[in-house]
Amino acid sequence: MNATSISYANGRFVPTDELTFPFANDMLGTLRGYRIFTSCRSIKHKIFYMDQHIDRLFTMADQIFMPLPHGKNDLTRILFDLLLRNRHLNSDLLFLIIYSGGPADSSGMLPSETAHCYVTVSALKTPDTQSYERGIALATYPFEREFAPIKFLNYAGSVIAQHTVVKEHRAKAPLFLTKTENPEWLEGSTFNIFAVKDNTLITPPTDGRILPGITREVVLNLAQESGITTEERAIYHTELPEFQEVFITSSTRGALPVVRIDHTMIGAGLPGPISQKIDQAYQNHVENY
């Protein structure tokens, strides 16, 4: 029998498969979609960049006027408690920290109390070794997330893209483009995007149109420490044939190479030297965290 993980449900610790969201007592979450989250992982019983994830979560809550039930130190204690309660899994863990709007006032649109807090815990699953050795494919999809710097629990665009362009191109995930005459790369369904052109590592800027990923920032710092020139600027889809390498970043993937976008092969169709260098630097960083 597989060991059961323990999660946190608005003041209670419960087996993860028993965690539920109330309906009537969480009207803003269930009917209005007023829910934000962050996902982070553990490494050797430490939570990777925990403070940064918590800071970003609290910043997002402030930006959308969501009153929270506790402070940063309280959330930190909950996460440490969950680390201890899940030691029996003998695995690195994935934490999904959710703040859900809670009950509404008479308008049906404003919270009548502080948000509810949930933290789901599961064994961490990362891409298979073959994905790093051979790279993955992406499919482009014109889609601009509303309130892009906020991690809302609304992935309708990603789900539709997965049903359509991802299937059509036999890809792994969608890459979102602006709906402009000269489309720009934005981000993926659950990742940030990087490209290599003339030995320079390029990524879209955090200008309000993408999520400022924590792994994205880590990778930029590692690249600079490794002597790789970096640039944050608009990436136009018309530049695709000029890119020698492309990779994506996220908490669960690290730096994962991309070898095809739609029908266009990237470089030689294999992970390139800068992607491999970044991936190795990231893995070393994880091991020494």
Describe the structure concisely.
By secondary structure, the protein is of the alpha+beta class. 27% of the residues lie in helices and 28% in strands.
Per-chain topology:
Layout: E1 6-9, E2 12-15, H1 27-30, E3 35-43, E4 46-47, H2 50-63, H3 72-85, E5 93-100, E6 116-123, H4 129-134, E7 136-142, H5 156-163, H6 165-168, E8 173-177, E9 185-188, E10 192-197, E11 200-203, H7 214-225, E12 229-232, E13 245-250, E14 254-261, E15 264-265, H8 273-287
Parallel strand pairs: 7-8, 7-14, 11-12
Antiparallel strand pairs: 1-2, 1-6, 3-4, 3-5, 5-6, 8-9, 10-11, 10-13, 13-14, 14-15
Keywords:
289 residues; alpha+beta; D-amino Acid Aminotransferase, Chain A, domain 1; D-amino Acid Aminotransferase, Chain A, domain 2; 2 domains; 9-stranded mixed β-sheet; 27% helix
Explain this structure to me?
It is globular and about 55 Å long. It is an alpha+beta fold. The strands form two sheets. Strands 7, 8, 9, 10, 11, 12, 13, 14 and 15 form a nine-stranded mixed beta sheet that branches. It has a six-stranded antiparallel beta sheet with strand order 2-1-6-5-3-4. The chain has two domains: 6-123, 2-Layer Sandwich (D-amino Acid Aminotransferase, Chain A, domain 1), CATH 3.30.470.10; 129-287, D-amino Acid Aminotransferase, Chain A, domain 2. It contains eight helices and 15 strands. Strand 3 (35-43) and strand 4 form a beta hairpin.
Helix content: 25-40%
Please state the overall shape, judged from the principal axes of the Cα atoms.
globular
Count of individual helical segments: 8
CATH superfamily of the largest domain: D-amino Acid Aminotransferase, subunit A, domain 2
Largest sheet: 9 strands, mixed
The average pLDDT is 96
Distance between the termini: 32 Å
- The fraction of residues in strands falls at 25-35%
Query: Can you identify the CATH class of the largest domain?
Result: Alpha Beta
Instruction: Give the CATH architecture of the largest domain.
Output: Alpha-Beta Barrel
Q: Say how many strands there are.
A: 15
Low-confidence stretches: none
Class derived from helix and strand content? alpha+beta
CATH topology group of the largest domain = D-amino Acid Aminotransferase, Chain A, domain 2
Q: Based on the structure, what is the oligomeric state of the protein chains?
A: single chain
Radius of gyration: 20 Å
Strand and helix order: EEHEEHHEEHEHHEEEEHEEEEH
Count of all domains: 2
